[in-house]
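User: Sequence in, structure out. Go.
Assistant: Echoing your sequence, followed by the structure tokens.
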Amino acid sequence: MTPASPASGVGPRAGALGGDGGALLIEIALGLSFLFVVTIAILGGINAKERFSIAQEIAQETSRTYVTAASDTEGRAEATRVANEIAANHGVTPGHMNVRLDGSLRRGGQITACVEAYVPVVPATAVGGFTRTFCHTETVDPYRSL
């Protein structure tokens, strides 16, 4: 049994390109596409975590602000102002955080602030996305004079 000679066209040196048949460009394109998708997924995950943290902060601060107000009307107005201020400080696009306040100021009552956060799938765009709601409840001091 004799090994095949390179001149016969059989064996490891069969093609001029070493046997890859020009697939290098396709492999590079697929590799770069994969890296692009992974990068967008990582950035999207970071963006989502940041938005969720901001939503939790807004829910906590607005319910605390409402509970310490002198009246329901003042509490709603001040809580809305605080929510808008926090969102603006974090650079959140208007309309991407919606705040809902429930409850009333009565001794032992509860004030609940729910914040619906919109997170775009691709950061810095409005392409696709999802929402998640965060709520925080504060109890009005049972010995408070109202």
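User: And one key feature?
Assistant: The chain has one domain: 23-139.
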